[in-house]
Structure formats: C-alpha cells, structure tokens
Amino acid sequence: MTEVAAAASAAGLASLGIQCCKGLTTYYNSYKAYDEQIGAVHEQIQVLTALFEMLERVLSQNAANPSQASSLQKVDEILNMCQGRLQVLQAFLETCRSVALPNSTAVLLQKIKARALFPFKKKTLLTLRENVQSLRDDIQFALSVLQMYVSAILNSAEMLKLTQK
Q1: Most buried residue among 29, 51, 66, 160 by CB atoms closer than 10 A?
Q2: Would the pTM count as exceeding 0.70?
Q3: What percentage of the chain's residues is helix, strand, coil (to nearest 5)?
C-alpha cells in the first residue's frame, strides 16, 4: 500500500470513528445524569472521540511527509484491525437512533429504571463500554507508534546536525 493510500485509509477510519463517537455522545448526552453507567459510557465515548480527533489531526499533518511512510502504514494496519469494531459501533449507533425514546422525564426515568429500552440495558451498556475501551486502547497504541516514529525522526535530524558541525 502506498503512503498516500495508507494515510487516506487511516484518515477515513479515524473520520468514521469521530462520526460514530459524536453520534453516540449526542444520543447519550441527554441521559448521562440519569444513571451512573450511562454517564460512564458517555465519558468513555468522549475520550475516544478526542483520541480519534487527535489521530486525524496527526495523520493530516503527516500525510504528505515521505519520512512518515512506515509509521503511517503501521497506523493504517492498527486501524484496519479496529475496522470491525468501528462497524459494530456504527451499527449500534443506527440501532440507537431507531429506538423511539420517551418524551417526558417521568416516563424516561421509569423506562431507564426498568432497563426496558435497548440502548439503556445494563448488558448493552457494558458491551458498548468494552467496545469503546478496546478501540481506545488501539487508538492510543496507534498514537504511540506515531509518536515513536516522530521521535526517531527528530533524533535522526539532531544527530545529523551534530555530525555536520
């Protein structure tokens, strides 16, 4: 895969991650105060969103840099491993959007307490939380890989300057 294709693929997956996370954040935002688990999932999704945004920024800044080719390919490989979980997250978001939510607070509290709505069931929240955590770990790893490559390049540049003096 060429550097440009790797950057485009990684950037596309990062963009998909941002869209999914923002959609889920918006969906759960109104309900995070009603239940500790909903609040925890909402918080984890916000962290994952920030990681995807950071990754997208780093990828766009380094996409045209030929010295970053190997790091971009590694990040692309990591993100390709995440692709299945991102698709699960996207499907989950679509399911959430299709569930009609109650329009009054009293009914909402009653429904959440009974865990009658799919997006608020304990098992659903735990599964979502595990998926988000797994993606977060992989994105943090991808960012670490990029950081190592950038550090190596900076160290090489410093060594080159020292040898030229």
Answers
A1: 51
A2: no
A3: 90, 0, 10
